[in-house]
């Protein structure tokens, strides 16, 4: 057996004759356990919050989305349609057309976006699963609205007598003259609401969704004009290869964006918060692991007579340093492992029982991720390595030489 490792394990298990040294070692070990458990729990909590936040965008946004390369609209020809249907990487695709409109109901009004979708929209997104109440009645002159806009306007569902009115400027060129004003420079569309969706605050105030042909007629666009195409990818197909196939069909008329690119600012904010939290807790661990340096130095002083004996028997200073380096590394790694196990048990209990609540009906979201396990353990091991190296370097010939 390796001699420094054997001595390090003996020192790790044995108690010192000095009670103060034992107390310092215990506190050091406890700090490592608590610090690693806390770091893992916080990272798991942020992973849960990230998943919880992104589930709303996952419900509203497709795997890939084609938007106009320039302008607000582009055309999808019959040949494009046929080519998209033949793509093996695409399980489903749906076309949509959206534009800013002025919604009015009785004496209330709200600026929103009308989105016309075809019958495949539910297959490319999960928006119908986010219905708060009502049903998905997206047909001619009927649709669904976000709960934010619904609360602003106060529109009853299935109100055929006084439906919601959407207003949009008529397309055209030139200045507005008296003749244009007399003939109403806007188009109006009555909509009977059949359902209300709830995703997140901005989206809930933004959209009213109805059928694609209805919106195309309302905006005076032909049946080939769309503002975006949503794609649901087939299982087993790579995102980038599917993007390349779709781009080959649409050519230069469209840009293909992933769900992450569609929500770039949200992903960037969540990732930045996660990194910042990790760095803050790592700084706390760095401060806490100074205890390891102090504990090892106390052990060195406590075992000074033993070190002199080993040095006199022929053990080189290098091996004596390595002995206490291994002791410090074993202390941090074992403490980190125990802390991670405690953290895993706490996270699994939260997933199973939801004992920590945000609201009476909503448990605090957490996520168990093996990457977090590996990250915490590697962080503890790296900090333990540095701490043990610093402390063991205190051993020199002057310390162990018999005077």
TrEMBL record:
Location(s) in or outside the cell: Cell membrane
Keyword field contains Transmembrane helix: yes
Superkingdom assignment: Bacteria
Membrane topology of the entry: Multi-pass membrane protein
Pfam families: FtsX, MacB_PCD
Domain annotation ABC3 transporter permease C-terminal: ranges: 279-397
Domain MacB-like periplasmic core: 26-248
Keywords: Cell membrane, Membrane, Transmembrane, Transmembrane helix
Family assignment from sequence similarity: Belongs to the ABC-4 integral membrane protein family. LolC/E subfamily.
Protein name per Swiss-Prot or TrEMBL: ABC transporter permease
Organism: Croceivirga thetidis
